[in-house]
Specification:
mainly alpha, MetI-like fold
């Protein structure tokens, strides 16, 4: 009897693999999907192409004044280029901006390596960013010691002020939020009542009211002769406000931990603080990373509200610059530049949180 040998497997049809297969599966899998895909492509063509033309192809990037932008149909980025120092440093003395440059460099060196998985010194740099970095930058920016000229906080502004307020708010709000979340779940009625009252009070008022209170009414409650700097009052108000929101995010993580984890820690004879520090909080914080980062992003964007108490962050400096009659109608360019700055930092925080979630993923993700 003749032996039959099986034929080799045939390759899949070309239309189901590669780029063509991806298009058929994801964009043109049905008549409805095909129509929606074509509609979206048409919408992108009618909006994205003109936007790119305005922002890049027909834009002007060089020049000394508005005459360089006369007769063009694109963006006048010359305005941004000429005012970039104001947008970055605010009214900080031009001869002393090197101090801010050092702080920017330290910020990049402290946080930049955190995005690289195999960088060997991430932990020491992370500790430095929470301890040495703020101390060094405070003495550099404020001056008044080590032979540095003192610079009043009224002259601080621009992107430097935005990053400063956001950094202090983020670093201070997280530990306060942890303490408030633990206090709200405490078995001691006095502590639990105080934490609940604090959280509900600060969550029940808008941030703009908090800034007004910290700037206008807080000095009325201080003893005569005692006064806080306006920036310090704003930092205290923002920290307290964000701590309340952070506490609720962390409380959600604490409630997601199974009761068995608490009982197992107690069975091992761990004290309350050792149980929280070694068993419960590491798991809870890992679960609520998206909520924590979302609160950080909201805080970063809310820094623009300090304009109402006379602090000129990057958005306020842009608003002040676009009213200069020497440049004409450049409001769009100014606001797009400010939006781009906020987007870069917020997107960076978002991507880092996603990376951190993947690194700490231990089976809870569905």
């Amino acid at each position: 009897m003749k032996e039959f040998k099986p034929l080799p497997d045939l390759p899949p049809p070309v239309a189901t693999t590669g780029f063509v297969g991806w298009l058929r599966e994801n964009l043109f899998s049905s008549p409805l999907n095909s129509v929606m895909t074509l509609a979206v492509l048409y919408l992108l063509y009618t909006t994205l192409v003109p936007a790119l033309d305005w922002a890049f192809f027909s834009a002007v990037f060089t020049g000394d004044d508005k005459t360089a932008c006369e007769g063009i149909t694109g963006a006048c980025w010359t305005f941004v280029v000429n005012r970039i120092e104001i947008f970055t440093y605010g009214s900080y003395p031009a001869t002393e901006t090197w101090r801010l440059d050092i702080c920017f460099l330290l910020l990049v060196l402290s946080f930049g390596p955190q995005f690289f998985e195999k960088f060997p010194y991430k932990l020491p740099l992370g500790v430095f960013s929470l301890t040495g970095f703020p101390v060094i930058c405070y003495f550099l920016i404020a001056g008044g010691s080590f032979g540095l000229e003192h610079v009043e906080t009224e002259k601080w502004g621009g992107l430097a002020l935005t990053l400063m307020i956001a950094y202090v708010g983020i670093v201070a709000a997280l530990p306060f939020g942890v303490v408030l979340a633990l206090g709200r779940r405490s078995d001691m009625p006095v502590i639990r009542t105080f934490c609940i009252a604090f959280i509900e009070l600060w969550r029940g008022v808008p941030l703009i009211s908090v800034l007004f209170m910290s700037s206008v009414m807080l000095p009325l409650f201080l003893p005569e002769g005692v006064n806080f700097d306006k920036l310090l009052r704003a930092l205290i108000g923002i920290t307290m406000f964000q701590s309340a929101y952070m506490a609720e995010v962390i409380r959600g993580g604490l409630q997601a931990i199974p009761r068995g984890q608490y009982e197992a820690a107690q069975a091992l004879g761990l004290s309350y603080w050792r149980m929280m520090g070694l068993i419960i909080l590491p798991q809870a914080l890992k679960l609520v990373i998206p909520g924590i980062v979302n609160t950080f992003i909201a805080l970063f964007k809310d820094t623009t509200l300090v304009l109402i108490i006379g602090l000129l962050d990057i958005l306020a400096t842009v608003q002040a610059a676009i009213t200069d009659p020497a440049w004409g109608a450049v409001a769009t360019e100014g606001y797009v530049f400010a939006a781009a700055c906020f987007w870069i930092f917020c997107f960076g925080m978002s991507r880092y949180s996603i990376k951190l979630e993947k690194k700490l993923h231990t089976g809870h993700k569905r």
